[in-house]
Design goal:
Layout lengths: L11 H5 L16 E2 L11 H10 L12 H11 L6 E4 L2 H12 L5 E6 L5 H8 L2 E6 L8 H6 L5 E7 L11 H10 L5 E5 L24 E6 L12 E5 L2 H9 L8 H10 L3 H24 L11 E5 L4 H17 L2 E2 L1 E2 L8 E5 L3 H14 L1
Helix pairs in contact: 2-9, 3-9, 4-5, 4-8, 10-12, 11-12
Amino acid sequence: MTADETLMEFSQRIARLPRYPVAGGYALPDDVAMLASNETPFGPVPQALEAVQRATMTAHRYPDPSNARLRAALSDRTGVPSSRIAIGNGSCDVLLAAGEALLEPGAELVHAWPSFSVYPHLAAASGATAITVPLDAEHGHDLDAMAGEVTVATRLVIVCNPNNPTSTALPAAQVAAFVADLPRHVVVILDEAYCEFNVLDDPDTTIDLLDNHPNLVLLRTFSKVYGLAGLRVGYGLCGSEGMVQALDQVRQPFFCNVAAQAAAAEALRHQDTVAQRVERTVMARVEVEEGLRALGLDPARSQANFAWFDVDRDPERAAQLEPEVVVGLRDRGVLVRAGTALGRDGALRVTYGTEAENTRFLDALRAVL
């Protein structure tokens, strides 16, 4: 840092904001198994790529700021009126906008921990108070404990289902009861980025809650099962139009680019492909979990496209081993996420990849351990 740079004065919230734990490996060779970021190993459907190519012919024009075509496609798919659908530059964009629209000094945010790494940014950026509730012994949300933390100051409660990074999920009936019991002034974001992989319930089950709960938002993404992570497009299904209007009001214009809008609208047309990908992911889930148990490990009960486990059954030893295991896997061409960066020392989060990648991971882990 130069002498001139030390004279710059940043806002106090810069010191409060945590840095997002970015996964490494983007500059590594192509033969590395990228199992660190919960991406799908399946690319976009060909028709989505064709839609992108057509859309980029008008790249000299700004994208539709209302995202009308994509919202209409989502409305047809979900039954939620397009006026109650918020689009974003990934689901994180919608999430951060909700924090800006709802939170301020004196307000409170309640969420479980460990959970999605972006949640701490909401309170830090706004000056609100974050109330974090530990997960239960099965790495899942303790909804009773979360409800007990709600006060008159609570503006926002977030439930990540399935939970990232622990892969666990709650039945929709439990979530519905939780939402129904909360005060109406509390906005509930049900973060469902991985809902398509959850076989406890039909992914569309929670959509029925929106008509009775104007304070509910279902947060979803095209980055996972649809294979569009590189284009950055997500959405929120909202219980009220007022929420959509507030989210749009705090964001920059043109927050979803023309290629992303076109690809997402086309991807929705291929639900058979989604079902096939979910089936293959569940098969990979069984394969990896069986492999981990054969190594004496105890993975959480995953309902997502990734596994979560401690690298040793003894917590103290697991915390000591974790850095060595991460490096050992990396040296063998397998990238995973260290639990230390995600809220739990001694744990690993590993995305399910292709059959070859999963085998490579298990073989590498066996060698390291």
